[in-house]
């Protein structure tokens, strides 16, 4: 009966540890304990945490005769099991010195046994890591078994060191079973709390990563095509489906580009921005969060709007300039998930990168187009000089022919400089080629003979600007340099209407 009452009292003491452990699991302090690592901050946190548990186990212990029935072994074993031999030994030393300072018949033996318990947990840690089984470190069965063995070792040390022996034997016979049961159950439950927190963390992390990757894949390249209403609506629909939130909106600096979800009957794309939260995010470039409790949220468009909270994240373009915002909403009857908040900020960075990449691509395309136009505008000076000299010579003999040559030269330059598009009709290109060949024919009359034969039904088809004139330059130049006999160049329109 005495032993049963002692077990109940020690279980009450153990419950205090478990409550503290559960409260710790709700803080960031618990996160480093959920992984096996050699990093110094992790080791230091293990040492401090389990040294406190060790000391508390002694303070909350029950004084029996000249000794203390306690749950100190939980802290020592868990410190070694999660932190390794060094941490376990230091935790045991700290807890052991504290127990020694309190005196009593078993002071020395309890100090030594506490150090051994920490080292025993650390030894098991090393063995499991060396065998490639770090998952076993977080097993409640492993923690309970080691603690049970550690308590058995403690009882043996008390019998070996504590004197007088008869008193030590009497003490061990009274406290051995209660302490072994209580510490074993306590260590297993502590590890169960840690394991549950670890499983929950991994579950949310994997879900978060999967959602982020799916959103990234679904929105890849959309805003690179342009930050407009059509592309913004595509992105908003993807986010609304994947994040499971109340609504999603995307704006530029002046108006709403896209909206989907609750309230889409009055949040209409194209309307000017009226929300103070959105304007603040655009002006300051900072994330604005209105949770509906600490920071009240009220829809600026409709007093009966069902949306109760919002997260407004700036979208940045070139030079970190705010180009617009992405807004995530939740309904009044739902809390805004912290995961969605973090995910939303990450997605905003992804979309900002797409906008910036799209701006660079369009600038690059404009630069390339400008370079092409510049090349088109460049005229071979020899061709120009030869044409002008030819016109000068012809004027003296045949003013009418000279007038035609001037007209051809004018047509050539007009087509060369003023055509806005790279794609032109075949009829337009024939006119340009004819002007070019007429000038060449007059300059190199002995080697230049040509005839243009195109069916009229092909005149409406498209071809590249200056395509034929570039193709004709090579045979003309070869004929002029090598005095070759006239040759025939044949060009046929494509079957689908392009050249």
TrEMBL record:
Keywords for the protein's UniProt record, in alphabetical order: ATP-binding, Cell inner membrane, Cell membrane, Kinase, Membrane, Nucleotide-binding, Phosphoprotein, Transferase, Transmembrane, Transmembrane helix, Two-component regulatory system
Known catalytic reactions: ATP + protein L-histidine = ADP + protein N-phospho-L-histidine
Lineage: superkingdom: Bacteria
The enzyme's E.C. designation: 2.7.13.3
A GO biological-process term: cell wall organization
Transmembrane annotation, as ranges: 7-24, 44-62, 74-93, 105-129, 141-163, 175-195
Cited InterPro entries: Bact_2-comp_sensor_kinase (IPR050640), GAF (IPR003018), GAF-like_dom_sf (IPR029016), Sig_transdc_His_kin_internal (IPR010559), Sig_transdc_His_kinase_LytS_TM (IPR011620)
Keyword Repeat: no
Membrane topology type: Multi-pass membrane protein
GO molecular function ontology, one term from the record: phosphorelay sensor kinase activity
GAF domain boundaries: 218-365
UniProt keyword Transmembrane, yes or no: yes
SUPFAM superfamilies: GAF domain-like
Primary location: membrane
Cell compartment(s), UniProt: Cell inner membrane
PANTHER family: SENSOR HISTIDINE KINASE BTSS, SENSOR HISTIDINE KINASE YPDA
Protein name: Sensor histidine kinase BtsS
Organism expressing this protein natively: Salmonella enterica I
Gene name of the record: yehU_1
């Amino acid at each position: 009966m005495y032993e049963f009452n002692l077990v109940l009292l020690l279980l009450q003491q153990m419950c205090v540890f478990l409550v503290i452990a559960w409260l710790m699991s709700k803080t960031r302090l618990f996160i480093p304990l959920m992984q096996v690592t050699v990093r110094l901050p992790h080791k230091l946190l293990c040492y401090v945490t389990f040294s406190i548990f060790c000391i508390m186990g002694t303070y909350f212990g029950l004084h029996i005769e000249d000794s203390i029935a306690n749950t100190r072994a939980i802290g020592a074993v868990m410190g070694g099991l999660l932190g390794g031999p060094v941490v376990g030994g230091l935790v045991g030393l700290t807890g052991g010195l504290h127990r020694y300072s309190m005196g009593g018949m078993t002071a020395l033996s309890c100090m030594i046994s506490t150090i051994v318990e920490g080292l025993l947990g650390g030894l098991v840690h090393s063995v499991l890591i060396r065998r490639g089984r770090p998952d076993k470190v977080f097993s409640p069965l492993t923690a309970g078994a080691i603690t049970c063995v550690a308590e058995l070792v403690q009882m043996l040390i008390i019998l070996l060191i504590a004197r007088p022996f008869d008193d030590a034997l009497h003490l061990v016979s009274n406290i051995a079973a209660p302490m072994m049961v209580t510490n074993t159950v306590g260590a297993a439950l502590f590890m169960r709390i840690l394991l549950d927190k670890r499983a929950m963390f991994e579950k949310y992390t994997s879900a978060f990563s999967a959602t982020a990757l799916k959103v990234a894949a679904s929105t890849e390249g959309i805003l690179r095509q342009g930050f407009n209403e059509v592309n913004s609506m595509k992105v908003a629909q993807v986010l609304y489906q994947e994040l499971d939130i109340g609504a999603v909106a995307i704006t530029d600096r002046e108006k709403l580009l896209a909206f989907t979800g609750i309230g889409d009957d009055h949040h209409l794309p194209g309307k000017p921005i009226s929300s103070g939260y959105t304007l603040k995010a655009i002006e300051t470039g900072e994330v604005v969060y209105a949770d509906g409790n600490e920071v009240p949220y009220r829809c600026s468009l409709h007093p009966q709007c069902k949306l109760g909270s919002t997260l407004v994240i700036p979208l940045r373009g070139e030079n970190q300039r705010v180009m617009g915002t992405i807004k995530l909403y939740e309904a009044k009857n739902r809390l805004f998930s912290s995961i969605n908040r973090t995910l939303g900020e990450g997605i905003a960075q992804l979309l900002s990168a797409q906008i910036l990449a799209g701006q660079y691509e369009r600038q690059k395309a404009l630069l390339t187009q400008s370079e092409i136009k510049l090349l088109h505008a460049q005229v071979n000076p020899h061709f120009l000089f030869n044409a002008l000299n030819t016109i000068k010579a012809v004027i003296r003999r045949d003013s009418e022919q000279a007038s035609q040559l001037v007209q051809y030269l004018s047509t050539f330059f007009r087509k060369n400089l003023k055509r806005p598009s790279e794609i032109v009709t075949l009829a337009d290109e024939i006119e340009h080629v004819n002007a070019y060949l007429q000038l060449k024919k007059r300059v190199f009359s002995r080697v230049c003979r040509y005839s243009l034969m195109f069916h009229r039904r092909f005149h409406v088809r498209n071809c590249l600007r200056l395509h034929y004139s570039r193709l004709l330059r090579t045979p003309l130049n070869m004929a002029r340099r090598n005095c070759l006999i006239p040759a025939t160049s044949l060009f046929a329109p494509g079957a689908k209407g392009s050249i």
